[in-house]
Amino acid sequence: MMKMNVMMFGGRVFIGVLMIAVFAGCTRQKAAIVPDVRLQGTTWRAMELNGSKVEFLQGQKLDVSLVLYRSGAFRGASGCSNLSGSYTMTKSQMAFSSIKVDRRPCPPMITVREKAFLAALSKTAGYRKRGGRLSLFDRSGSKVAVFMAVQTR
């Protein structure tokens, strides 16, 4: 009987130690993992435009987003309309041009934000990518947009 109690106690201790190790390992991993995604071919969802948080608005159909392609083309969405065009890029500079928008009827708040998004792209002169974040800057170095990488199916 005593031997069985010792074995059960030992089993509980083993399971307890195992659970602590698993949870401790998970905690360290979550803090240490920063997604390092490619700049090109990734869907970048807008988080901030000109210092204002980008939220999903009533009547919005699409995320405010951007995808850069190796060919120098880009596509995106303003929340209601789709957009496309071209971009040039060096190590720290970026500029968008030939921006085309398939203007769709949108609620007024989304139209205002669409104009802000297009203005931010037009003003872009530089960028910085760190992990899963992309920031765009104007010529004076002011941040005009912040994006986060998102997984697509």
From TrEMBL:
Sequence ranges assigned to domain DUF306 in this UniProt record: 38-147
Q: Which domain of life is it from?
A: Bacteria
Question: InterPro entries given for it?
Answer: DUF306_Meta_HslJ, HslJ-like_sf, Hsp_HslJ-like
Where is the chain membrane-spanning?
Answer: none
Q: Which Pfam families match?
A: META
Protein name per the record = DUF306 domain-containing protein
